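Input chain follows. Return structure tokens only.
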Amino acid sequence: MKKKGSNAKPVATSSGLHKLTQITGILLMTAGGILLASLVSHTPGSAYDPDIGTTYPPDDPDNWAGHIGTLIAWRLLFLVGHGAYPLALIVLACGWCVFRGADLRNWVFKTLAALFLIALYCGVSEVAWDRPDPTAFRYGGAVGMRLALELLRPNLGLVGSYLACGALAVVALILVTNIRFDTLLDAAADAAARVGEGAAGIWARRKAEGEKRKADLTPQPPSPKGKGEQAGLSPLPAGEGSGEGSSRLTPDRETRPEEADAPERPSVRLPKRPSRVESPEEDKPVERVLRDASPASGAVYAVPSVDLLADPPDGGNEVNREALVASARKLESSLISFGIEGKVLQVTPGPVITIFEVEPPPGVKVNRIVSLSDDLALAMKARSIRIQAPIPGKSAVGIEIPNDESSVVYLKEIVGGAEFQKSPSRLLLALGKTVFGDPYCADLGKMPHLLIAGATGAGKSVCINVLISSLLFKATPDEVRLIMIDPKMLELSSYNDVPHLLAPVVTDPKKASDALRWTVGEMESRYQRLARVGVRNIGDFNLRVKGLLVRGRTDENGEVPRPLPYIVVLIDELADLMMTAPADVEDSLCRLAQMARAVGIHLVVATQRPSVNVITGVIKANFPARIAFQVASKIDSRTILDTIGAEKLLGRGDMLYLPAGQPEPVRIHGAYISPEETERIVAAIQAQGAPFSTVELTPKAEETAFDERERDPLYEEALRLVITHQQASASLLQRRLKVGYSRAGRLIDELEMTGIIGPFDGSKARQVLVDEAYLGEMYGKAEEK
């Protein structure tokens, strides 16, 4: 009970203080209301008594506050003149602030500044009057008369008094209202400039109309050209021929102020409007679309038509120039409120975001602007703001603010563009559009491997479908083959019957490690073939093979050579594979990432868990090209990109793409492809019936068989040791056989290949598959031999 009473005492004290402030506020507001009512209804008139140095108010029955109101109004007007009216308003404002519980220390300071401003008004209003009668004051009251006749006029004169009082009034206004007068001056200058431009435009337009009327009234001789000129129109002056882009405007249109060439701050860079997307059949030669899919069989394969994709809507979001300029002004005022006098140099609207290029003042650190991203998002009413500080090649900071209405980037806009159609690369990927609205494509052959990560629902699966569709639009099955690993069994199943696949989509995580091991074996086999031919990469090898085909020659084995296709391995969810067999998957991925580029094998790995136990340091070091979608935290962003920024993305395909060899990521709005479009593309490819076979993505028996000629001399001793102890580990072999870790690991691998022990199973110990009876059988067979 004692503790409860001690806790209740501060609550009671706080409640009592709150009641006291409310009562005080009500009393102050009542007093201010009485003051204002008495002043508004006061009837001027009084008699001066020189014996006692004061006046007596006349009876005023019309005063709203009665006799007391008459006395108060007469006394206030006698003291401060017209300054009594703002004084009553100050009392009202103080009462309201006390009632609302505002910070009294701040308001006391502002109240004193306001009283000082009233005193300045009283003094200035009496300075100009030079009366012989010192009591004949009008506007400033007794206070103004004393200030004017005893302080200002004798010491500063008329002009000096006005200048000094004006400067002090500006200082008092700044203290009372927090108004930035430099901003007001800039706004006034801009308004004056606009008025001047409008007046000049009106004058020029009227002058041009007068000249036109004068020219119409003047008779014109017949022109020898006749057809080229019309009556009433003068010919183009020299240098304004009808060349390219030399359209002439009428004078009234030419001199409109809104279309004048005068520079406007900030400048607005309008995005390019997307042109109509044509199908490749309309503007490409037939041999580009129809290529030999299999030189051996003579089959012809046609890449899918761009017309299978959905058309973007006509028009789109129109750019409102006035709204962009208003947003730029609002951004400048928001920065000023945080103590940074930045200036917006250029505004660039994009399909999803708008970039404001802000030039910070000298001496302002870039990190100070970056730290204001959340505060600026609140001030601009934006979902999130990403700040690029600084913009490469410019002395400006890029502030990326989401649009109120975002546009969808359709895949047809990218695939049907000139950059995608004219590129000779068969591994070109259509990623989307930049923040400026320009199509963006990337060559997988130059990456050479791609890591994709992002939260669920951020657009990762759509991006993978866009990448696959880009390869299908660009290459034949003889040029690019695909290996798809989809542990989720949903995303990539629609591509099962595409002839580009080397094997059906792998959905079992345990078989995925076999598929990666097969790819490693294929990589080594290709290196051997390149070494026999004497070339360094797959491009040179295919050129050599095509030369042999043209000349009708065979290879060293007497067989007809065939070009090697590129192989793209797509893994939709790396986290499931890392949970099943982390060591095998990581080793295979690292070997492929380090060596597979030269032989035309490329990896595209995606995961929705951007954590360090999934995207390990070894994997990330071998994937220089990365795509980050929206993530939950800065830590996840650093895990993917080694920098922050992905946590500020908007989702729905908004990504940061880090090209290989570049320090800063590029923001891209990912292209969108619907499931219906994917089905149409797959159906169009299947309708051709390309006769391509698949392979079994498992290591061959002869490749995995153990060669007894390469058996370690300590193999039999290790075999007896493992069977006797029914335990298999590298540390056991190290201790008992006194060998190093590498040799002990090789012995463990040999025991696994011969079926003595089971495979690696995470943190669990390997299972010994045989007992001591196996030793007796083995030695019995050896004695019989």
